[in-house]
Each structure stands twice: as structure tokens, then as C-alpha cells.
Amino acid sequence: MHGQDYCGAFVEQKGVSEKEAKAVFRRVTDMGREDGPNINSDIANSASKVDARRVLQHAREQGKDAEFFRRVYQAHFAQGDLISDHETIIRLEQEAGLDGAKVREIPSGDAYREKLEQNLSDARSLGATALPLFVINNKYAVSGAQPADSLQKA
User: Fold this and answer.
1) pLDDT tens, position by position, 27-62
2) CA 82 to CA 98: how far, in whole Å?
3) CA distance 110 to 1
4) Tally of structural domains, the chain
């Protein structure tokens, strides 16, 4: 499984020029530098995140969703790992302290597919147009990468 380079995928999906895409990535990278997460769009791959999101549902049930999300985010944006790769997902969930045997079953089956679809439907009903999506009090949604002070004001 190979992902497309992040910039190329963004250009195709959003219909913008490469110059515009790189400007967006610079802004997001700068926000990340200020607020914590390391983002390197030059090595990140655009690939399906469905299976990683399904494992996140399992991690949430185990109280390890924040740690799993942090590991996936770091692997994807800072290390250039292909997060659609099942072995990568399994490694990341083990690093987050989850049971590898259980997670091995999730990407190859249908576990958590319905729950993920419900979450995506809920996000769309709140007006989600980009990720990340921050939901406040199950009522307000802030979509896309935002500076920390914007979220604090919300």
C-alpha cells in the first residue's frame, strides 16, 4: 500500500495550485510548531485512514484513544508512516498500550465500521468540512486546523 504525496493529493482534492497548497501547509506547520504537534507535509502520505479510525473506536472503549490518536498523528505527520498499512496500525496501537491480538482483527473485518459511519454522519450533521473536527458540548463544531487560542475562545 502506497500513499500519494500529501501536497499532490491536496491539489487534486481541493482544486488549488501547488503553490497554494504549500502555503496552506506552511500555515498549518507553523501552527503545529507553536502548539505542539510536529507536522512535516513533505514526508506525510495521503492514504485511507478508515482502518486507523476504526481502531480508534476500540481505543476509545479502552480509555486509550488520546494516546492512540497521538501516536497515529505523530507517525503520519512527523515520521511519514503509511497509516493505511495494517502492520503500521498494529504497531501504533501496541505503542499506545492496546492489545495487538484484538486490533489485528479490526482492519481485516467489519468491527467498528458501523460506529465509525455513525460518527462521520454526526460530524457531517454538525457541518464538518475538514479534519480535524473539534466538537464543543455536542453542539458546536470547529472544523479544520485551528490555532489553540481559537479553540480556547470557543
Assistant:
1) 777 776 666 667 777 787 788 889 999 999 999 999
2) 19
3) 20
4) 2
